[in-house]
Amino acid sequence: MTLSQDVATRRTFAIISHPDAGKTTITEQLLLFGGVVRQAGTVKAKKSGNFAKSDWMEIEQKRGISVTSSVMQFDYEGKRINILDTPGHEDFSEDTYRTLMAVDSAVMVIDSAKGIEPQTKKLFQICKMRGIPIFTFMNKLDRDGRDPLDLIAELEEVLGIEGYPMNWPIGMGKELKGLYDRYHKRVALFRADSDETTYLPLDENGDISDDQPLKTNSWYQDARDNIELIEDAGNQFDMDKIASGDQTPVFFGSALANFGVKTFLETYLQFAPQPAAHHTQEDDDVEPTDDQFSGFVFKIQANMDPKHRDRIAFVRICSGMFKHGMDVTLGRTGKTMRLSNVTQFMADTRENVDTAVAGDIIGLYDTGNYQIGDTIYTGKHKLQFEKLPQFTPELFVRVSAKNVMKQKSFHKGIQQLVQEGAIQLYTSYTTGDYILGAVGQLQFEVFQFRMKNEYNSDVVMEPMGHKIARWIDPEQLDERMSSSRNLLVKDLNEEPLFLFENQFAERWFKDKYPDVTLTAKL
Ligand code: G4P
Predict the structure, then answer these.
(1) What is the CATH number of the domain that holds 509?
(2) Considering the entire predicted model, what is its pTM?
C-alpha cells in the first residue's frame, strides 16, 4: 500500500458529550464491531474500577481512570479508526480540550431526554473553532425522551449548527418501534428482545409495503408526518456544510440496546474526513501524504508507572510514516531524538508499534524532553505547527510551599509542570502570590501529587473556587481597576487579566469601564 492509500483509510475522531450521555456505552459498541473487545462491559468495568489494575499513577488508580483507553484503534471495513478519549466527570481537564486539536472529526453524543448539556456545549465550541465535521448521535431512544423536532431545533438555537436528521425515530421508550432511515431508504425495526435488526425497504413514495403491520401503526404515521415536515421545511443535506462544521448529520438510536449504532458507524465512515493538512507557524500547510514525517505533542501523561519516572508524550502524526527507531528533530530545541520506545494504544493493551501514518497517534516514552505543543519532524526543512490554543481556566487555588525552606524545589516543580501544560500559573499583581488555574478539579490533585512525588515538595492549596478569567489590553490597564470583586493577576506571558468573582462582578466592571475590552481565551 502506498502512503497516500494508507492515509486515506484513517479516521481519527473524539466523542464529545456530557457525563452519562452514553459515551462509554457507544465506544464499547464500536469496539465490539471492530472486534477489539469481545464482550460489552470491558471499558465500563475499567471505568468503575473493577478492572485489573496495573501500574498506573496512584491518583489515577484511585479514580479508576484508564490510561490505556486514551486512544483506541481498530479496523472496520477497510478503515483504520482511532478514537481519542475525552475524559469527563472529575477528570475533565485541559487535556480534554487539547485532545480535540488532534482529531479530524467529532461525534457528539446527546442524551435525547436531556438535550444539549454544559460540557457538550464547551467541547462543541472547540470543534466549531477548528471547523471540523461533527456527527451527532441522539442516544437513549429506548427511554422516553424529548420531541425529536425539539432536539433538532435546539442544535441550531443553542449551538448554532444546522441539524440534518439522517433517520427519524418511530416511537420511543416503551413504544419504540424502529427508525425511519432517510439516508438508506429503509425502516429498521426495533426488537427489545434481540440484537438483530430487520430492515424494510422503502418504495418510491418513501413508504413501507402495505402488508407490513407497522404501516397502520400510529407511531409510524407520526414519523412519516414529521419526515414530510422536515423534508419541506428542514435543512438540505449539504456535504460542504458538513465538512466545515456548519451542518451536523443527526442519527437517533440507543447505544445500550445496540440499535442504530452500526448504521451510524457505517454512515459516519462514509462521510468522515481522512486526515487533513496541518498549518505551520511558517504559514505552510503540511499535507498528510508528505514523505517527511511530522507530528505534534498534544498531551503528556505523567508517571504511569510509579517505579519509573516515565511519562508518555502523545503525538498526533500529521504527515509521512513513523518507523520504529527513526530519528526526528525536536523543533523547539533542535535536538535529534530517536523514536525507539514508542507505544500505540489498543483498547486493552499497550503494544509496541512498528509503523504508523498521518492520522495515527503514537505514545513516546519520555524522560522530560517533550512539552505540549512540541513539533517533531524528519528532514532538513524546519517545521513548527501552530501553537495549541490556551484555554480559559474556571477553577483557581492559591498555592504555596508548606516548608518555606524548600522554595527551590517548589519553584522548579511549578515551573516544569506549568511548562508541560499540566496547569496554568498566575501571579497576583499586588502580593506576588502564586495562583493556579484549571478547567477541572483533578488537575490540582495531580499537581499536588506530582509536586510531592517528582519534586519532593509539599504544597498548600487554598481553594478560591470558580472565577471568570478575562484578559485586558495592557494599554487600557489601570491598577486601580482592581477591587474587592476582582483580582488582578498576570499570566505566564506577563499578560494582565482579571479574575472576577462571578458574572455580576464582570458586568459591574463593564458598566464602570465601558471602553475597556475584556477577552476570554477559548
Ligand atoms: P458516559 O460514558 O457518557 O458517562 O455514559 P455511559 O456510557 O457510562 O452511560 C451512562 C448511563 O446511561 C449508564 O447507566 C448506561 O448504561 C446508560 N445508557 C447508555 N446508553 C443508553 C441507552 O441507549 N439507553 C439507556 N436506557 N441507557 C443508556 P448507569 O445506570 O449509570 O450505569 P450501568 O449501571 O448501566 O453501568
Answers:
(1) 3.30.70.3280
(2) 0.89
The pocket around ligand 1, CB under 6 angstroms, is made up of 17, 19-25, 44, 139-140, 142-143, 254-257
The verdict on residue 164 lying in a domain is: yes
Which SS3 state, helix, strand or coil, does residue 80 take? strand
One-letter amino acid for residue 236 of the chain: Q
Number of domains in the chain: 3
Report d(CA 188, CA 80) in Å as an integer: 27
Centre of ligand 1 from the C-alpha of residue 44, in Å:
9
Exposed, middle or buried, 470 (CB in 10 Å: 0-12/13-18/19+)? buried
Atom of ligand 1 nearest to the CA of 255: 23
Q: How far apart are CA 23 and CA 17, in angstroms?
A: 7
Q: Could you tell me the distance, in angstroms and rounded to a whole number, from the CA of residue 21 to the centre of ligand 1?
A: 7
Total residues found in the chain within this entry: 522
Q: Report ipTM (2 d.p.).
A: 0.97
Mutate to test the pocket of ligand 1, among 23, 256, 261 (most ligand atoms within 8 A of CB): 256
For 154, other C-beta atoms within 10 Å of its C-beta total 15
Tell me whether strands 424-428 and 342-345 are parallel, antiparallel or unpaired. unpaired
386 lies in some domain? no
Average pLDDT along the chain, 522 residues, taken 10 residues at a time:
93 95 92 73 48 38 48 90 84 86 97 96 93 97 96 97 98 96 96 87 93 94 96 94 97 96 96 95 93 94 62 92 94 93 57 76 87 94 89 92 89 88 90 92 87 91 92 92 90 93 93 93 78
Residue closest to 420 by CA, chosen among 492, 322, 339: 492
Cell numbers at 450, concatenated: 506530582
Which atom of ligand 1 is found nearest the CA of 89? 4
Distance 294 CA to ligand 1 centre (A): 38
